[in-house]
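Anyone able to model this chain together with flavin mononucleotide?
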Amino acid sequence: MKLTSALAIRYPIIMAPMFLVSNEKMTKAAMDNGIAGTFPTLNFRKEGELKAVLENLNQHLAQLPPGQGTYGVNLIVQKTNPLYSKHLKECVDAKVPFYITSLGSPKEVIAAAHSYGAKVLCDVTNIQHAEKAAKAGCDGFIAVCAGAGGHAGPYPMHILIPALQKAFPDKILVAAGGIATGQQMASALVLGAHGASIGTRFIASTEAPVSEEYKNGILNYGMEDIVLTERLSGTPCNVINTPAAKKLGYKQNWFEKLLSNNQRTRKYFKMLVQVRGMKKLEQAVKPNNYQQLWTAGQSVEMVYEISSIKDIVAHLTSDLKTSFKEMASLQKDYE
Ligand SMILES: Cc1cc2nc3c(=O)[nH]c(=O)nc-3n(C[C@H](O)[C@H](O)[C@H](O)COP(=O)(O)O)c2cc1C
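re: yes, here you go
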C-alpha cells in the first residue's frame, strides 16, 4: 500500500531505470499497465531531448485515470555527470512525479522535488548509505541487492531488506536486484519491502530499443554467466560474461587504481572511465554489433521469453497473487 499510494500506481512495481535501455515507449507502456516507468535522464543527452520527452510523458499521464500509473526519472547525482544540474532543472520545471537518485548526495534533488510535492527514492546498498539519504530527507529507498543488473550491492535481499525495514520503519522500501517473477516479488514483500524495482526482466520486452541479440542473451545466459566488472564505470557493475566482457576484464589494474584513488586525479579519471564505458555500451546495444557488452543481473536465470510489457506485468501480478494463495494454504501445516 505504501508504495502504491505514495506513487499513485496500481501495482507495487517500478520498471527500473536502465542506461541505454529504458526509453519513452517503455515508460508509457509501464504507465498504461498500472506500474511506474522510469529512465535515467542520461538516456536523453541531446539538446532539447529530455524536455520533449517529459512533455510527452506529462501529456500521457494527464490522460490516465488517477492512481493508474506514473513515471519517474533517475538522476546520477555525481560531480562526474556533466548534465546533472541542467537535467535537474528541466525535471523540476516539468514537475516530474518522482525521482530515483544514485551514487552521490541526494540533498539538492530532495529539496527541489519536495518544493512541489514530488517523492524521492534513493538507491542504497547498505545501512550507512541509507542513513545519509534519510538524513538528507528522502522519502524512501531502492535497496539495491546482490545480483542486480548494473551497479549491484553486496548484500542479499534476505539480509538487506529486513535490516533496512528495522532501521527505517517509516520509509518507503523498494527491493531491487534479482527479481523477475511474482513469486520473488512475494518474498520481497514478506521480508518487509513495499514493492519491487525490476530491471533485467524488462530488457527482454518487445518495447525495449536494444538489439535482438541482447534480448536473446537475456534468455540464453544463466545466473552463472553474470560477472561484476569494475572496468566499465569504475563502480562494480554486473554484466553478462560474453567474450567482450572477458576481454574487457573485471578488475582495475594498479595504474587505474592509483588514478582512481589519488585525490587530484580521481574526479577526472572517473569521468574518463565513465565516458569510455558509456561509448562501449552504446555500441553494444546496437543491432549486429560484435561487442556484446551487455549489462544484466542474475535474474536472467528466470527470463524465458521476450514479451510485451503488458504481458510481463500481467504475469508478475498474477504470479504474485498465486504465491500469496500458496503461502496461505501452507499456513495450516504450521498451526
Ligand atoms: C541494463 C541496465 C542498465 C542500468 N542502468 C542504470 C542507471 O542508469 N541508473 C541506475 O540507477 N540504475 C541502473 N541500473 C540498475 C537498475 O535500475 C536496477 O537497480 C536493477 O536493474 C535491478 O536489478 P535487476 O536487474 O536484477 O532487476 C541498470 C540495470 C540494467 C540491467
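Residues 2-208+307-332 form a domain with the TIM Barrel fold (CATH 3.20.20.70).
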